[in-house]
Amino acid sequence: MTPRLANPYPLAPAGFAAMLALEKAIAGSPIEASLVHLIKLRASQINGCAFCIHMHTTEARRDGESEMRLYMTNAWRESPLYSDRERAALAWTEALTRVADTGAPDADWALVCDQFDEGERAWLSLVVGAINVWNRMAVGFRYTHPVETVDEKDNAA
């Protein structure tokens, strides 16, 4: 796949600076980093953003997330691996990522209200909004993810 823009950052520096400032704010938010990783991964899966899926699985593994929970994120509703808080966040992620189809249902919002305080709800929605902006840029500009080869030592039993 050939990128449509080699490097869009210098073409819109103020916009990208604002996005990076938002990411810095999210990193300091009350939403735990492990949950931010799951939210970013799930939205990226829905949006078909290979670049972001690669980035967020790599970051999550680096931060200690289990391989199985990453594998199962696409089927989180059928897996017992996620807490009620994570389930509420993942449902809200799907609702907002697919907002044209879902209209952000009251049932999903009720789950969020059961698990997150008011401030956390605002941050949760910011996390979902931010990753959706990044996904749209990465998919639209055809960003390509790094391609690693698996070392033999990584396959050793």
Report the average pLDDT across residues.
94
If classified by CATH, what would the architecture of the domain at 32-76 and 83-144 be? Up-down Bundle
The first-to-last residue Cα distance is 34 Å
Q: Helix proportion of residues, in percent?
A: 55-70%
**Oligomer type:** single chain
Rg, alpha carbons = 16 Å
Low-pLDDT sequence parts: none
**At the third CATH level, what is the topology name of the domain at 32-76 and 83-144?**
AhpD-like
Backbone structural class = mainly alpha
Counting H and I runs of at least 4 residues, what is the number of helices?
9
Find the count of extended strands (DSSP E, 2+ residues): 0
> Roughly what fraction of the amino acids lie in strands?
under 5%
Q: What shape does the CA trace take? A: globular
Q: CATH homologous superfamily of the domain at 32-76 and 83-144, by name?
A: AhpD-like
Using the coordinates above, name the CATH class of the domain at 32-76 and 83-144: Mainly Alpha
Most strands sheet:
none
* H/E element order: HHHHHHHHH
In short:
Helices cover 66% and strands 0% of the residues.
